[in-house]
Amino acid sequence: MRTRIRCSPAARDGLKRLGADIRNARRSRRLTVRWVAGQAAISRPTLRRIEAGDPAVAIGSYARVLEMFGLVEGLFIVADLRRDPIALAIACGNSPKRIRRASLLAGLNAMPTSEPR
Predict the structure, then answer these.
(1) Of 78, 76, 75, 15, nearest in space to 50 by CA
(2) In the list 14, 55, 77, 97, which could disulfide-bond 5, CB 3.0-4.6 Å?
(3) What is the largest distance, in Å, between two alpha-carbon atoms of the chain?
(4) What is the pLDDT of residue 103?
(5) How many CB atoms lie within 10 A of CB 41?
(6) Domains held by the chain: number
(7) Is the per-residue pLDDT at 17 higher than 50?
(8) What does pLDDT average to over the chain?
(9) Over 90: is that where the pLDDT of 53 sits?
(10) For the segment 82-111, what is each residue's pLDDT rounded down to a tens digit?
């Protein structure tokens, strides 16, 4: 039975775009699903799920396919701290020492400006 993963619409759209980009990379190189799946050591149904942007597919499977196309470097910038405004604010000392969980859940942009007592 396939695992059903719930994710936000933005995350789902991003995975669908990634899957479409992977499919386009495969097609532009004129490679078959069978060949790519074999080289990436994944099954053909898994490759089809990757190309559909299925969030239940392991990230390692996405990485193997991206590596085959020479596109794996894109994964390294996904969570790069230099591109994370919250991490940069913390590193620069522009954030409070204590951040309440509720404020994070309400919206990461609405961080409290002073410490609670």
Answers:
(1) 15
(2) 55
(3) 63
(4) 54
(5) 9
(6) 2
(7) yes
(8) 83
(9) yes
(10) 888 887 777 777 655 666 665 555 555 544
Structural domain contains residue 36: yes
On whether both 56 and 83 belong to a single domain, the answer is no
> Cα separations (Å) of 76 from 28, 71, 110?
24, 10, 28
If asked whether residues 13 and 68 sit together in one domain, one would say: yes
Which pLDDT score is estimated for 102?
57
Looking at the structure, tell me whether residues 39 and 62 fall in a common domain: yes
SS3 content of the chain, % helix, strand, coil (to 5): 60, 0, 40
**Is 71 within a domain?**
yes
* CATH code for the domain of 69: 1.10.260.40
Domain that holds residue 101: 79-117
Phi/psi of residue 112, each to 5°? -65, 150
pLDDT for position 1: 55
Residue 70: both structure tokens together: 């020479």
Q: Which DSSP symbol is given to 16? A: H
Specify if 33 maps to a domain: yes
* Same-domain status, 88 and 112: yes
Place of tokens 């597919």: 57
